[in-house]
Amino acid sequence: MNINDIKIAVIGLGYVGLPLAVEFGKHRSVVGFDIHDERISALKAGTDHTLEVSGEELAQAAHLTYSSNISELKDCNFFIVTVPTPIDDYKQPDLTPLIKASEAIGSLLKKDDIVVYESTVYPGATEEVCIPVLEKVSGLTFNQDFYAGYSPERINPGDKEHRVTNILKVTAGSTPEIADLVDEVYNLIITAGTHKASSIKVAEAAKVIENTQRDVNIALINELAVIFNKMGIDTQAVLEAAGTKWNFLPFRPGLVGGHCIGVDPYYLTHKAQAIGYNPEIILAGRRLNDSMGEYVVTQLVKTMIKKRIQVEGARVLILGLSFKENCPDVRNTKVIDIVHELEEYNIEVDVYDPWVDSASAQHEYDITPIDKPVADQYDGIILAVAHEQFIDMGIDNIRALGKDDHVLYDLKYIFTKDETDIRL
After folding, report:
1. By mean pLDDT, which of 71-75, 158-162, 175-179, 317-321 is the weakest?
2. Region 188-200 average pLDDT
3. Are strands 402-410 and 147-150 parallel, antiparallel or unpaired?
4. Tell me, what's the pLDDT at 160?
5. Catalytic residue list contains 76
6. Can you list the positions of beta strands (E) in 289-329?
7. Where are the beta strands (DSSP E) in 152-268?
8. Residues 299-326 as b or e (16 or more Cβ within 10 Å = b)
């Protein structure tokens, strides 16, 4: 197949798929597919609720069309799969979206078609899980009638500096020739260039360790923060001092949520355990990071007791619900752990987040954020997410939300140690 014959379909128009479809749609014919009709209607109207792509950018993708009807992809021959790969309640990989996407593509697959996966998986998942589904549904033979590739997504939600085009892209193909073609296709839009991996498994492994490495490093800093808090040492001051050494890594303590760092390590550990190896460091880091919500609430409650503030029946305001700053994404946010832990103490909790859609919070976690906090109402305030709005409010306006006697907990080091009661 020649690159000029490529007709692209992007399956899944979320945080990963939409920016990709838009960039390809600036240069050639692309069909963007999503199973949610309301998502397709919004995009056709020029609105992206994820805020990753502006209305102006959507308009620039002149060759991009949208559909929730899989049959409208029948003329495409280069399918890019960007569906979510979450974990279930038991922290095991949930490949259901990936399998369903593969089944849908399999129903359309033709001779010489190429299917490229971008979803984060464990090494081997593309060839062990997805390819058999494509073969079964299509009746075609892999690497004879159709081919596959893998190019892991590196989207950073809410980041307006690192965009899909200026982030170096890893690519891989099921044969050397397909690897070259997949790499050539991505080079149509990736100005930062590409790195062609030696195999699909290598590309899968590279992706999953990117976030596993960050997770383990943050776990170390979280553990140090716990130790320093017990010693009465300001963690931020320690990190600033240590950061003067040229090779000290600038990680900071905090909640580790989102669809990548808090999820991807479980894909790697799942595969490791499946082949008979029990990963010690990775799982220890996961346990520690998953425990931080409980630790935060314990610190808050202890400080309230020291200030003789009645804990049971107290009212606490949490500023921020999304998993990171200046982003509406609430997937796997660990702020919800703080909410649930506070409720265990019979504390009344209000959540305020100007970035988050109330319907999304209700759907994901059955909570409804307040429209706007009122002054002099709270026994405790937790600055959980460093949204620009909270920074702009300033310490005095945030303090004004609390009662005369309250506790302010700054998880994100927005303000100085002297301005707050507790910092992580």
Report:
1. 158-162
2. 97
3. unpaired
4. 84
5. no
6. 315-319
7. 169-173, 194-196
8. bbbebbeeeebebeebebbbbbbbbbbb
CA distances in angstroms from 242 to 111, 209, 248, 262, 424, listed in the order given: 58, 25, 7, 26, 17
3-state secondary structure of 28: coil
Look up the pTM and report it: 0.93
Task: Give the integer Cα–Cα distance in Å for 234 and 417.
Answer: 8
- CA torsion angle for 123, 129, 135, 141 (degrees, to 10)? 30
pLDDT over 90 at 24, yes or no = yes
Q: Which of 76, 130, 260, 327 is catalytic?
A: 260
176 three-class SS: helix
Contact 335, 321 (CB under 8 A): yes
Over residues 383-407, the pLDDT tens digits come to: 999 999 999 999 999 999 999 999 9
Lay out the sheet containing 402-410: strands in order across: 348-352, 315-319, 378-383, 402-410, 422-423
Strand partners, 194: 169
Q: Which helix (H) or strand (E) holds 408?
A: strand 402-410
Per-residue pLDDT, 386: 96
3-state secondary structure of 363: helix
How far, in Å, CA of 163 to CA of 189, rounded? 11
Q: What count of other Cβ atoms lies within 10 Å of the Cβ of residue 280?
A: 8
**pLDDT tens digits for range 227-270:** 999 999 999 999 999 999 999 999 999 999 888 898 999 999 99
